[in-house]
Write a structure and sequence with these properties.
With about 260 residues, the chain is α+β, with helices and mostly antiparallel strands.
């Protein structure tokens, strides 16, 4: 099981750590990774978490619901209190048709899934008295089977959408859409069509999301880091462009974010 880590969680709280787990074999075309969180807070305490999700669909099972959440265009705040848990599957673009046939209309959207058997099976796994690793593995196996039963394979175009999302998220040398197009061996227009059909956000938005997440991670590790250095490393023309992007997405300047508690 992987260590607790999530680039999308911008104000991590050790009282509610997120565990990321790779998908089971045979589901990698449809699921990027799983994330699981459990918490038990004393009465009257809250954990307020600033979250900037990955620009894809999340399938999430919680104690009272199973739902799908579309990619967001800005950060959000998750407030945790009492006791609870959530099991999430970060879907790859190839699995988007399972949730919506119009990704652009599902941006910032959500809908409940009427899947009582899925919900009950995940809840049973999480509620068992087995060690966390076994409980988590059983829960993700349930969700992975549900997804792959409905998306047993991906066609070549869907796999290209997966590759585009992976490159935009992980290759630090790709700073702009023309860079991504060259890495893909495709035109920018092809990338725009893939993004519209499988993600709902533009290629530029994918790359901007990664840069904001990386800038936030940098500031968490070094709150006094020079903004000009961060901007240059992440491909911004100058720190004012970084600050503008940061504020537009998170509602905070980089320095305001760096001063957040925790």
């Amino acid at each position: 099981m992987e260590e607790s880590k999530s680039r999308g969680q911008l104000t991590p709280d050790p009282r509610a750590p997120i565990v990321r787990i790779p998908p089971p074999a045979g589901s990698e075309h449809a699921i990027k990774h799983f994330w699981i969180v459990e918490w038990s807070l004393p009465d009257g305490e809250q954990s307020r978490q600033l979250v900037l999700g990955y620009p894809v669909i999340n399938l999430v099972v919680e104690p009272d619901r199973a739902a799908a959440y579309g990619p967001s265009t800005a950060s959000g705040t998750r407030v945790l209190e009492g006791s609870g848990w959530a099991v999430g599957a970060l879907l790859r673009p190839a699995a988007t048709p399972l949730i919506t046939d119009c990704p652009t209309r599902f941006v910032n959207g959500a809908r409940d899934l009427d899947e009582p058997e899925l919900h009950a099976a995940v809840a049973r796994a999480i509620a068992s008295h087995a060690p966390a690793e076994k409980r988590f593995r059983e829960a993700i196996d349930v969700v992975a089977r549900w997804v792959t039963d409905r998306v047993p394979e991906a066609d070549p175009r869907a796999l290209e959408a997966n590759r585009m999302a992976d490159l935009a998220d992980s290759d630090a040398s790709l700073l702009r859409v023309p860079d991504l197009a060259r890495a893909m061996g495709a035109s920018q227009r092809t990338l725009e069509r893939l993004a519209a059909d499988y993600l709902g956000l533009t290629p530029a938005a994918l790359m901007r999301r990664r840069r904001i997440q990386l800038a936030a991670e940098w500031l968490r590790l070094d709150p006094d880091a020079p903004l000009a250095e961060i901007a240059q490393e992440l491909g911004y023309a100058d720190q004012s462009h970084l600050t503008r992007d940061f504020r537009a997405v998170l509602g905070l300047t980089p320095r305001e974010y760096a001063r957040l508690p925790g």
